[in-house]
Amino acid sequence: TGWGHGVLAVGVAATANRQDAEQVFRVKHPRTMGAFAPRGLTEWPSVVILHPVSLSDARGWYLMIWFGKPLSEVLYTPPAGAAPVGDENTRMEHALRWVAARDPHLEGAELVDALAATGWVDRATAARLLPCFRHFDPDRYFAEALRGLSFRGPSAAGEFRQRIGRVMEDLTGAAALGTVGEEECVRFGAGERQGVVLAYPQVQFTLGGDSVKSVAAAAEEMPDALVIVARNFQEGTAGQLAALLQGREVPGTLVTVNLLLGIRATTLRYQPGAERVIALLGTGRPLRSRDVAVLGDRD
Questions:
Q1: Which DSSP symbol is given to 2?
Q2: CA 119 to CA 114: how far, in whole Å?
Q3: At what angle do helices 274-281 and 157-172 cross, to 10 degrees?
Q4: Which of 81, 178, 242, 268 pairs with 222 at a CA distance of 20 to 30 A?
Q5: According to DSSP H, which parts of the chain are helical?
Q6: Which residue has the higher pLDDT, 80 or 276?
Q7: Is 139 left (phi over 0), alpha (psi -120 to 50) or beta?
Q8: Contact 92, 69 (CB under 8 A)
């Protein structure tokens, strides 16, 4: 919503964590900065602390107003909250886990830069300690973090979909965040075969409301695979999806988070090729463990 002249205010929020509130996140946003940035604001968006407030039954909260991206898309980069307590090895492990949860593929200088960017270790310390953590398994922490997000509901949707995008990139070689209907989605593909993922960090997910509209909008695009990912699904969700897609030549596939991580692990190990993975995701029914096992078969 535009307020006044030259100011774009996306909204306000409250946090009970003063250290979260005191961080200012700067992410360049060239399309909107020139048109809407308030006078004197040189980076975009910015989080501005107004003052402590009382919200109904809660006291000691801090009111924030931000400009640019929705707050849910900003607060998880860089890490929020107090720095880990402990010696440099403890801080290094926290930094490794935080980076691995978001990009488990980083190596060498790129990994050292990412570790230093957390603020928990400097670059020299990260480079010196990294060989001591050679047994650290980034894929394990990536999987654990994604499972954790899958319980958190709509408040974690933005970050959850970003990480599902990372998984789809691992599976098919190309993936990007986009929109379908009124919801964010992940688009993936290889060659002429394309697919859409609708991802929901929810337990016992079932279709309704905006998700129904998103399924209908995605079906209009006639993708080779329409995939819905959630922690798990209510009984009957597969029937709902089949009914929504009736009469359309669009395969709708339900995949739990655990099974998607299993597909990722199998793909990284056996390298079955993007075409086979997309064919699996286009099965058009809820996937089972036995379906994933075929990716380990040699052509």
A1: B
A2: 9
A3: 130
A4: 268
A5: 18-22, 30-36, 88-102, 108-117, 123-129, 138-149, 157-172, 210-220, 237-244, 257-270, 274-281, 289-293
A6: 276
A7: alpha
A8: no
What are the C-alpha distances in Å from 65 to residues 27, 133, 148, 261, 273? 15, 40, 28, 37, 46
Distance CA 2, CA 20 (A): 26
- Which residue is associated with the tokens 């990716």? 295
27 and 44 Cβ atoms separated by less than 8 Å = yes
pLDDT digits (tens, 9 = 90+) for 226-237: 999 999 999 999
Structure tokens that stand for 247 in this block: 């009469």
Can you give the three-state secondary structure of 131-195, one letter per residue?
A: HHHCCCCHHHHHHHHHHHHCCCCHHHHHHHHHHHHHHHHHHHCCEEEEEECCEEEEEEEECCEEE
d(CA 28, CA 31): 9
